[in-house]
Design brief:
- The protein is of the alpha/beta class and 255 residues long.
- It folds into 2 domains: 6-17 and 103-254, Rossmann fold; 19-98, DNA polymerase, domain 1.
- 40% of the residues lie in helices and 13% in strands.
- The chain has 9 helices and 7 strands; from the N terminus they run βαααααβαβαβαβββα.
- Strands 3-2-1-4-5-6-7 form a 7-stranded mixed sheet, sandwiched between helices.
- Strand 2, helix 6 and strand 3 form a beta-alpha-beta unit.
- Helix 4 (78-98) packs parallel to helix 6.
- The protein is elongated and about 60 Å long.
- The structure holds xylulose-1,5-bisphosphate.
- Xylulose-1,5-bisphosphate binds next to helix 1.
- Xylulose-1,5-bisphosphate binds at residues 10-13, 19, 23, 52-54, 126-129, 132, 155, 162, 191.
Length: 255
């Protein structure tokens, strides 16, 4: 039985409903500020989320949906426009986080604190920009919370984003732990496909954007992490008698 030594969390959609509450509105505000009549509706955004990485998502949108798009004269080329849009969007995302508009999902804070009290290490493995991770954690868990995580693997730290395994490989390497001693938490098929090749077992907590995706290979698929007051729903896998996610359940999943 492999000993549990670390929990590795995805951010967007796993720690918080950031796509719904943060990224999508921030993208639309950046488009409006830049004089673009682009509107990423929840339905369109659900399709665009298949491409991980905000800069990559903007590029895919132009290529797949705006075949005759002309880059505004304000920008030297498409790359310059994407860089500007993404920086503007990140500023808005940080503002929304600071305004308390991006709360953590159920059970997240409890599990993080339980892991800390039990000496289980914490790490993050996310495609999002590091500044977004800092804004989310500081504004939900307090200024010291970044120090709770031994590794924050994020954004462009690796050459290939999810579903490539690079970001989880980076997290494991910097934790200096084998995958067998760790458990990953994700919300998307992209994330599951990123974690699995590294040997990590993965717990998926679905959300509105991802609940219809394929999670074959996940160790456990849940509605959310649950709380003592609001039990989770087990969609697939074996949670035993647990009604909310605990460090003990994590240990059982590694057994
Ligand atoms: C989700 C992503 C990110 C965010 C947007 O990352 O794909 O690109 O949608 O953030 P994860 P950026 O699920 O791995 O947390 O615009 O900063 O990329």
């Amino acid at each position: 039985m492999a000993e549990l030594k670390a929990l590795i969390f995805d951010v967007d959609g796993t720690l918080a409903e950031t796509e719904r509450d943060g990224h999508r509105p921030a993208f639309n505000q950046a488009f409006a500020d830049t004089g673009l009549d682009w509107d990423w509706t929840p339905e369109l955004y659900g399709k665009l989320l298949e491409v991980s990485g905000g800069k990559e998502r903007i590029r895919a949108y132009v290529q797949d949906y705006l075949s005759d798009f002309q880059v505004p004269a304000d920008f030297s080329d498409l790359d310059a426009m994407i860089k500007h849009l993404h920086a503007t969007k990140t500023t808005y995302y940080k503002q929304y986080a600071a305004a308390g508009k991006i709360p953590l999902r159920p059970g997240v804070e409890r599990l993080l604190n339980e892991a800390r009290s039990e000496g289980v290490r914490l790490a993050i493995s996310t495609t999002t920009t590091p500044a977004n991770v800092q804004a989310l954690l500081e504004n939900t868990l307090g200024p010291d919370s970044l120090n709770w995580f031994d590794v924050i693997a994020a954004g462009d730290m690796v050459p290939k984003k999810k579903p490539a395994p690079d970001i989880f490989e980076y997290a494991l390497e910097h934790l200096d732990l084998p995958a067998d001693n760790c458990l990953a938490f994700e919300d998307t098929n992209n994330g599951l496909r990123s974690a699995t090749p590294t040997g990590l077992k993965t717990v998926v907590t679905v959300n509105e954007y991802t609940k219809a995706q394929d999670f074959t290979g996940a160790k456990l698929v849940l509605s959310d992490l649950g709380t003592p007051e609001t039990p989770f729903t087990v969609i697939s896998g074996d949670a035993g008698n647990a009604t909310y996610f605990t460090v003990n359940l994590a240990r059982q999943l590694l057994a």
